[in-house]
Structure formats: C-alpha cells, structure tokens
Design brief:
heterodimer, A: 281 residues, alpha/beta, Elongation Factor Tu (Ef-tu), domain 3, Rossmann fold, 2 domains, 7-stranded mixed sheet, 6-stranded antiparallel sheet, 8 helices, 15 strands, 31% strand, B: 348 residues, alpha+beta, 8-stranded mixed sheet, 4-stranded antiparallel sheet, 20% strand
C-alpha cells in the first residue's frame, strides 16, 4: 500500500572543500555519496540543502558541470546557512534536486547573450557562463555584467582574473563603492549594473539572463528595453523561499505559478500577467 | 448506467455495520452547541446527521496538521511511513468532496505525496446530501453536485437514502448486507431529482462565477483590499478551515544530543508575516493587505494556471471563522464584480 517513496528523501553529500570568497560568502564543493544520487543538472537550477537538525534551504547550483560533485556559493544569511558555515570539510549533509527549469540553453544556441548578475545572483549566473564557455562555439557574442554594492563583496576573484583575459567574452564589473584597505585584484568600475549595461554593446537581438536581488529587476529591465530588446528576449531568475522544491508547499507561489516548477527562470513577457512577480514599469 | 439504490433510514444501523466492517468509521459529531468535527464513531447514534460544516474540513484525516516524514539517526535516514488502517469517512458534503478532489489533484501530481495518498487510498468516502444555510455558496463555484472523490453518495429523500455508487469499493460496501439495498424505483429517482432541484432553490447567497478569474485580476488594485486588509489580524484562521488550503513548512526536530531527529511537516499559512520572506529579510508580501489580497486571488483564480481550476469550494468556513469579518467571499466578489463603488453585481 505504501509503495510510493516520499519525494522529500535526500541523498548524502560530503563537503570536499570550502573556499572563502568574501566576508560571509563561501564556495562549498559537495561530493555526492551515491554516484547517481541526483539527476543531471542544468545551469540555473537549484537544490534543497539539508543540514540535519537544522533544516533545509534552497541554494542555486553554482557550477556548470555537475557530476559526482557540485559547487554551491552560499552567503551566511539565515539559520541553515549559518549552520553550514559552522561545518568542516568532511562533514555530511543532505541534498534534494535539482529543481526548477534552469536557463533555456538550447534556445540560447546561435544567439548573442548578455548575462547580468547582481550581488549573490552571480551564483546561478556562474553555472550559466561555465556552461556557455564549455560549448563556446555554439553561442554568439557573450557579455557578462556583474555588479555589487561594495568592492570587497566581489566573488570569484580568481576566476574573473582569467575571464577578463578571454577575448571571446566581454566582462563588465561594477561596484557602487570602494571599500577596504586594498583595491580588488581585478579591474572594475564605479557604478551600478545598469551603468554597465549602458556601456556594453548590446543590440536588440541579444538574449539576456538576469539574476540579482529583487529590487534590481525593475531597473535592469528598463535598461534592456532602452537598448531595444523585446521582453521575449529577457530571462529573469526569481528568488523565493522554496520549502519543498516540488510545487507543493506553496511558499514560492507567484501569480498562478510555482517558482520552483515553472521557474525560477521566467521569460519577462510571461511574468507581466503574474501579480507580485516583479515590480515592472 | 450509474448504479442507484435506496435503503430506508430505519435500516441505517445495518449500513453502519457494513461500514464498521471495512474499518474505523469517521463521521461528524457534535462537539459543542454550534460546532461539529469529524471523529471516529462506534455507533450510528453518535453521528450528527444535521452537521453542515465541521470546524475543520476532512483534509485533516489525510493530511494531518503535523506529521513526521523522515527520521534520521547518525547518517542513516529513513522514511516514516504513515500508520495507515482501512477507514470509512461518512457524511462528507459536496463542497468537501470537491475540496478533497482539489487536494487529490495536487498531492497526486508528480512527484506524488506518498503520505497523503497512502491515507487517501485506505479510505472509503461516503458522501451525504445537505441543505444550504445562509453561508453556503457551493452552487456559485460549481461544486454543488458531487462528481468525484466519493465511493458512495447518499441523498436524503425523506424516509430513505438514495445511494449513488462511484467505485467498486462503494458497490461492495452497499452489497455487503444482503437485502439492505433495493434498486432505486422510478418514484425514488423522481424524489432524488426533486431534492436537488429544491436544494438549488434554497441557496440564499451567491454570485455568477463566469468572469471571476478575469475580474480578480482586473481588480488587483481595487481599494477593497486596503479596506479589508487593514482589518486583518493575520491570525491565519481562514487557512486551516479551508478544504483546499494545504501550504506547509517542513522543519527539523532534533534530539537533545543532536545526532538523531525527525523532519516534520506542519500546516503553514500564507497569512503569516514570514510566509513569503526570503534570505536577507526581503518580504514579497510584507503586510496584511498584500497577504489577504493574495489569498483571495488564490481562492478565486489561483490554480487556473498551475492546475486548471480555482480553489474555492463555497463551504463558507472562512466566512464564519474570520474574527475580523473580512472573509465574506460572496460579498467581496459581488463588490468586485460591481466595480469600484461596490454597487451592482448579481445578487441572488
């Protein structure tokens, strides 16, 4: 009678490495204990990370390739992430997923792309640029725009040093404020994400993939529209607190859709009839 | 052709025996002067046949307020299967049957919820007809005639019950007492039809729902949300009493030593302030106005996109349970349909 298995069953993962990226931001590499424990992952999907005794939190997958291991870029923000920051290499945790639709990488093929990340929104965007660079010849021009409030919040410093040298990728990094005793080791400009979009050579045929804090979308959308981009070319990854990841618990419900199933990546013209999705002028 | 039977009300104890044989019988019983609840009963005499709406809908029997999903000890994780025994749920009215239908659709959609379905599949549901009171409006939302979610449906046709069968298990239940059931006569069929015609005429409130999804979206900025939301206490009463509200949270309950514990699912409510809050404190629905409007839209339009149906079944529980008196769904719909000034609409 109870042949069905609960969809809430996690697989084991072990923390293989922890890298400090910035204050309160760490990159965790998680080794999956069951080799086929989780299905293949697409850029932009997320997992439910479980710390026994503490709880679960939805975390974007941050690495383009997910096989036996995956990378999660986590900011210490709440109960579960605070507990994660107490953990050491070798500790185990639970994972469910991957969930959500991810970015439409097949649709992106043959097209020019601009990736826009604000703050910690760089985590899912990183999974996308790693994927795009792995299959670089399939895509047209690539522009990466990354903005943050303070220069010391820059994540993936070492990776950007490499990316900035690539000729097949234009990188624009902006911070609203320079903070700290030394300047960051990558070149960046003062300003906001929107200033960088103004600078970048974006034409109406581009596709845009955007992830950032909730307040960012309205302004980014305005800039992209000013560049002549139609709404159908703009893809936004929305943040909600998914408790289940499988379209049941109701926490990520937006308008008529579950962000965890229909999203988290939505095409802008699909969002406009969903009340509460984003503030869109 | 659907199989229809009748049996005399005097014979109900025999029918009760047949139900008890299958498993525990759960039925509405009177728990206070004016309230009823679904409880296990051991005799027909305990059943409150007059019960219209129980405090909580029958969802609590398949989807308890709190249940353990997983347990862990050290690195070992195991599923905690629900303790499922055969049971018969008696006395479910059409609105609650529709509510179960909504939950069935949600919890059986992929990936299916094993805990809900295990209890659901072990249960025979016997529906029972009712006459509307001044809070009932199932005929406005299309849930007034029982279509699915039941095994047997009994309609009160005076001295007898008219039994419609909707599943093999239901048929078996009716036939398990030889001689109890008579094939429905022509007269009985006419009495059955008369009952439902009269019932339809007995509704005191209502609205036309055809344009409802469009109206709710059109009136997203209507001042009514501000007016009602200002009075909302965010108590969340409206959600546990709703037959189709099922939002939940899953939390860890750890042992004192921390090396073992459980993952527990609990009912949650979209009316609580932290429901739509994300890491870092940003809240997509920070105030009671946002949350009340969200709830109304979800009930009256909500699942058209995700599942293809709205979720209000017209039972009136939220209306009678709201301490602030702002869950008058019929009144609100009439005002929305009548426009900004609150005039018009089509009152019945």
């Amino acid at each position: 009678m109870n042949a069905l298995k609960t969809p809430f069953f996690p697989v084991h993962g072990v923390i293989r490495s922890i890298i400090e990226l910035a204050a309160d931001n760490r990159l965790f590499e998680i080794q999956l204990q069951e080799p086929n424990g989780l299905p293949r992952c697409r850029p932009g999907q997320f997992v439910q990370l479980w710390i026994p005794g503490v709880g679960e939190a939805p975390i974007s997958v941050c690495s383009g390739k997910v096989g036996a291991s995956m990378e999660l870029c986590v900011r210490r923000a709440g109960r579960v992430t605070s507990a994660l920051f107490q953990m050491q290499e070798g500790d185990w945790l639970g994972l469910r997923g991957p969930y959500g639709n991810g970015f439409p990488v097949e649709l992106f093929e043959g097209k020019d792309l601009v990736l826009i990340a604000g703050g910690l929104g760089v985590a899912p965007i990183r999974s996308l640029w790693q994927y795009l660079l792995d299959y670089r010849q399939k895509f047209g021009r690539l522009i990466l725009v990354y903005g943050m409030r303070h220069s010391i919040d820059l994540l993936f410093r070492a990776e950007f040093q490499v990316l900035l040298r690539r000729r097949d990728l234009d990188v624009y990094i902006a911070a609203e404020d320079v903070v700290g005793p030394q300047l960051p080791t990558v070149s960046f400009q003062l300003g906001r994400v929107t200033d960088m979009i103004k600078l970048a050579q974006i034409t109406p045929g581009f596709q845009a993939a955007v992830c950032g804090p909730p307040v960012m979308y309205k302004y980014v959308v305005q800039e992209l529209r000013a560049k002549g981009m139609p709404d159908s070319n703009i893809w936004l990854s929305l943040e909600r607190h998914m408790k289940c990841g499988i379209g049941k618990c109701g926490h990520c419900y937006v308008g008529g859709q579950f962000t965890c199933r229909a999203g988290p990546v939505f095409r802008l013209n699909d969002l406009q009839f969903l009340p509460e999705a984003i503030e869109c002028a | 052709m659907e199989q229809c039977f009748t049996f005399e009300k005097e014979q109900f104890p025999l029918f009760f025996e047949a139900m008890s044989e299958h498993g525990t019988v759960l039925a509405p019983v009177r728990v206070s002067e004016q309230s009823f609840a679904f409880r296990p009963v051991s005799s027909a005499g305990e059943i409150a046949f007059e019960a219209l709406r129980t405090i909580l809908p029958p969802k609590k029997l398949f989807y308890p307020q709190r249940e353990t999903i997983l347990g862990y000890e050290g690195r070992t994780i195991e599923e905690r299967k629900p303790d499922v025994k055969p049971q018969v749920l008696f006395g479910v009215h059409p609105c609650d049957l529709a509510g179960l239908g909504v939950l069935d659709a949600i919890f059986s959609s992929d990936p299916a919820d094993s805990h809900y379905l295990a209890r659901r599949k072990a249960t025979i549901v016997v529906g029972l007809s009712c006459m509307p009171d001044r809070y009932c409006f199932c005929n406005s939302v299309g849930t007034d005639s029982p279509e699915k979610g039941y095994d047997v449906f009994l309609t009160d046709i005076g001295g007898s019950y008219f039994a419609r069968v909707n599943s093999p298990a239901g048929l078996q239940l009716l036939q398990s007492r030889p001689g109890l059931m008579q094939p429905a006569s022509g007269d009985a069929r006419q009495q059955y039809k008369d009952f439902w015609v009269n019932r339809d005429r007995a509704f005191q409130i209502g609205f036309k729902s055809g344009n409802l999804p469009a109206i709710v979206d059109m009136e997203w900025d209507n001042p009514i949300w501000e007016e009602l939301g200002q009075r909302c206490l965010s108590c969340g009463n409206c959600t546990p009493v709703c037959p189709t509200c099922y939002c939940f949270d899953i939390l860890d309950v750890a042992s004192l030593t921390g090396d073992s514990g459980e993952r527990v699912r609990e009912w949650d409510s979209c009316q609580f302030s932290g429901f739509a809050q994300v890491a870092g404190g940003f809240n997509f629905r920070p105030g009671p106005v946002d949350r009340l409007r969200f709830w109304y839209r979800h009930k009256l339009h909500g699942f058209e996109d995700a599942y293809g149906f709205p979720t209000c079944v017209g039972c009136g529980r939220c209306t009678v349970s709201c301490p602030a008196g702002i869950d008058d769904i019929v009144g609100v719909v009439l005002r929305l349909q009548g426009g900004q000034d609150g005039q018009g609409g089509e009152e019945r």
